[in-house]
């Protein structure tokens, strides 16, 4: 089940809201847990078992870590067990086939791939449950007494499938007591509709442009056509993922939860370092706190610090997918961040803003080429086209046709990737006390999104596969 579906919008969500708002306060975590399991198991009920096993194992680990918090050696064993268990679970389902296929490809044909389907959201909920005993061990959280409340935290459907990655310590108090006010509920609806509009009206439509270019014949291809395709993909993945995060944050508000922000207009960044402070914030902060800092962070020699950055970005690439292109993608950003840290960032900050923005956008677009094509042969050919090493023209009629048909959409996408619309809303609607316009915008957005969903044959969530 996805948020941008008729069954979710007009069946599942209304039922959940009615149940949650009419049930006694002490039972709301239980109902949230059970209803979230229904949401998760809608497409593949079997994988509910994995989610429950992960929940129970880390609940028990957290209990014993807290019990032996004054005996660090014993507590540490339970933390290590949690790490090994969660990474083992993630590794088996996500990376087993990749590893076996890679070994087979170089002649080590000892085993065969199993062809297992990747459990949806496993990259997100394993990181969440793994952080729970670690935070207790560090003294940053206390053990949750109720397994039901812990289960509600792990399975909470707004953020279960594609984040943001919610750490237990950030939500522990809200599991016990949270403010479910009408004002927060209204904010939640507004935020949800912003995310739904991003996904349905922007991401899906520009995604069709990318798919069209991706499947174009060699006679239709030109250098600018390929660049347009990568720009389209860059917009698609941003509005798809940030739209999902907006919907998750909005749904959280409807139930009284405050989930952390996951995006902050990354395409206005002036460096790669800044880009990764604005993009997928919850993942970046997770790797910072649980990998980068424990390795020594930047409080070490320059050589060790470079190693730490490279390790983090190798793992970040692997986290996104079991394919060589994701490893290359992670290493690409790791190398760029090392170069910026060593010398480039200081020099870049002295350059005009337009130079900083151009530098960042070009490098980010190149990264999306690596990210988009898992087939290394296709990836290589795409780069040949992009940089003029293939036998294709610089511009052709097909590119002009695509630009003419999608010009307005591209302008809307560019503006929407900046804070401009938010600033206009705050100044001319909130600033002039015209909040009565907001319900009209929300209703209009819902009607428009529903029309697009009913008519759409293309409605993927890109980050579901991670």
UniProtKB/TrEMBL annotation:
- UniProt topology in membrane: Multi-pass membrane protein
- Its main localization is membrane
A GO cellular component annotated for this chain's UniProt record is: plasma membrane
Q: Which UniProt keywords apply?
A: Acyltransferase, Cell membrane, Membrane, Transferase, Transmembrane, Transmembrane helix
Q: Name one Pfam family in it.
A: MBOAT
User: Molecular function (GO) terms listed?
Assistant: acyltransferase activity
A GO biological process this protein is involved in? alginic acid biosynthetic process
Q: Where in the cell is it found?
A: Cell membrane
Q: Which residues cross the membrane?
A: 7-25, 45-66, 78-96, 116-134, 146-166, 221-239, 309-333, 353-373, 407-425, 437-458
Q: Which family does it belong to?
A: Belongs to the membrane-bound acyltransferase family.
Q: State the name under which the record lists this protein.
A: Alginate O-acetyltransferase complex protein AlgI
Q: Which organism is it from?
A: Anaerorhabdus furcosa
């Amino acid at each position: 089940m996805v948020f941008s579906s008729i069954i979710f919008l007009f069946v599942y969500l209304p039922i959940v809201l009615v149940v949650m708002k009419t049930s006694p306060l002490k039972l709301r975590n239980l109902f949230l847990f059970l209803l979230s399991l229904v949401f998760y198991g809608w497409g593949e009920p079997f994988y509910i078992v994995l989610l429950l096993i992960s929940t129970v194992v880390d609940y028990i680990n957290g209990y014993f870590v807290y019990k032996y918090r004054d005996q660090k050696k014993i507590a540490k064993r339970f933390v290590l067990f949690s790490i090994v268990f969660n990474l083992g679970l993630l590794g088996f389902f996500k990376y087993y086939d990749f590893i076996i296929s890679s070994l087979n490809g170089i002649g080590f044909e000892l085993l065969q791939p199993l062809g297992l389907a990747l459990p949806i959201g496993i990259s997100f909920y394993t990181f969440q449950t793994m952080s729970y005993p670690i935070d207790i061990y560090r003294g940053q959280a206390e053990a949750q007494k109720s397994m039901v409340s812990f289960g509600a935290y792990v399975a909470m459907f707004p953020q279960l499938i594609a984040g943001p990655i919610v750490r237990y310590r950030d939500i522990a108090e809200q599991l016990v007591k949270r403010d479910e006010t009408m004002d927060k509920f209204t904010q939640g609806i507004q935020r949800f509709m912003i995310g739904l509009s991003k996904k349905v009206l922007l991401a899906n439509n520009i995604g069709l442009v990318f798919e069209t270019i991706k499947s174009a014949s060699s006679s239709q291809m030109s250098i600018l056509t390929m660049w347009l395709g990568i720009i389209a993909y860059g917009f698609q993945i941003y509005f798809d993922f940030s739209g999902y995060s907006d919907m998750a944050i909005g749904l959280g508000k409807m139930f009284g939860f405050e989930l952390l922000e996951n995006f902050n207009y990354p395409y206005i960044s002036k460096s790669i370092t800044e880009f990764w402070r604005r993009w997928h914030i919850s993942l970046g902060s997770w790797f910072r706190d649980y990998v980068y800092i424990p390795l020594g962070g930047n409080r070490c020699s320059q050589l060790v610090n470079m190693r730490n950055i490279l390790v983090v970005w190798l793992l970040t690439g692997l986290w996104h997918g079991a394919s060589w292109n994701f490893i290359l993608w992670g290493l690409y950003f790791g190398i760029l961040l090392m170069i910026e840290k060593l010398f480039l960032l200081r020099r870049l900050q002295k350059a005009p803003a337009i130079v900083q923005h151009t530098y960042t956008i070009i490098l980010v677009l190149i990264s999306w080429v690596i990210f988009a094509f898992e087939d290394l042969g296709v990836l290589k050919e795409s780069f040949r086209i992009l940089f003029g090493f293939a036998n294709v023209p610089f511009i052709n009629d097909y590119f002009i046709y695509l630009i003419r048909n999608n010009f307005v959409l591209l302008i809307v996408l560019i503006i929407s990737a900046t804070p401009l619309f938010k600033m206009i809303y705050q100044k001319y609607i909130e600033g002039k006390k015209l909040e009565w316009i907001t319900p009209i915008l929300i209703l209009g957005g819902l009607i428009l999104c529903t029309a697009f969903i009913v008519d759409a044959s293309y409605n993927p969530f890109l980050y579901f596969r991670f």
